[in-house]
Tyrosine-type recombinase/integrase (Leifsonia williamsii), 387 residues
Amino acid sequence: MVSETWGTVTTRMLTQGRWAARARYRDVDGRTRQIERIGRTKQKAEALLREAMRDRIKPLGDGELNPETRLADLAIVWWDEFSHTSRSNGTLRRYEAVLDKYVVPNLGGWMIREASVSKLDRFIKQTARLNGYSNASIAVVLLTGMFAMAVRHDAIESNPMKSVAPVEEPDHQVATFSLEDVAELREILARWDAGLDASGRRRGTDLADPVDFFLGTGCRPGEVFALMWEDVDFTIQPFTVDIHRTMAKNREGRWTVQNKTKTGGGRRLFLPTFVGKMLLRRRVESFSELVFPSSTLTPRIPDNFRLQWHIALKGTRFEGRVPKEFRSTVATALRDAVGLERAQHQLGHSTYATTEQSYLPRVVQVPDSTAILERFNVRGDSGAGLS
């Protein structure tokens, strides 16, 4: 029999001031799995991790699920299967966090036969109330999959999650920027980029140009910062850009360039004139294969861009606004001018039926919307000369 062992424990401080401790753990089935625990201090995180590894429940072999199996055991068997599917690294990290933080701690001691619809329904409602809609929705996905496996193993007759009430999505307002907002924002960011930092040196934030690209395309931040010069075609009018990469976190939580977009497909976009002129200027000045690299010419991390954005807008009327609102701004402008279908293609939202998702992704030649997007080429009066 293979014994349980674990490797070196590594720690890192998170942005919220908390600590994460992580180690690779070799289970009794011979598989190596990565385990992470988070604590208020480095020592607390390490203690929680070592406790989790000491108390780890041994995985079951195939065919061993039965009505007496604990949900903690079921979760391990199901996750081992689910984590080897074609889900993105970001999805797997998010799902594993909900499984470890909410599902197993609250339900892990139940036996499969004890998991009634009423109990599961109360758990989902409580999770939504205490931990939010997103975590509750993911818990529904996880538990539905777990009990589907239990049904396949004849450990239960039917999936109780099918009768659990849907998670009620909270109402939320879609935030957009008006043309007046866009004019003022572009002026603020251009002045910020051209200003000096506390040491009297020119800032290297590069906020204004990416924002112009957001406005002229509606792209996601990850897509913008994964963009390479080879994706831009300056030989035709209007210029075009192929969007087929994105920045994404891998299973270890590190940002990397992923050779597919969030929805898996690619799209070719026409660029409005103001974006084309900006890209031509950057191309002449560029020393990187990336269009919008970091200050060290490496792929720019979206989290760092958002941090710089919030610093630049602190004390303005835009404090608290977020860059993703540019996507809804572009979507609203296109929907109102030329219809919802054009907006969906421009932003790269999936329109395929579920049965078509296994086909190879196609590059959609998006209709020319540059005349509409050119309207965002505005600045306040005091911003003259900052082009």
Q: What stands out?
A: The CA atoms of residues 188 and 313 lie 8 Å apart. The first helix runs from residue 42 to 54.
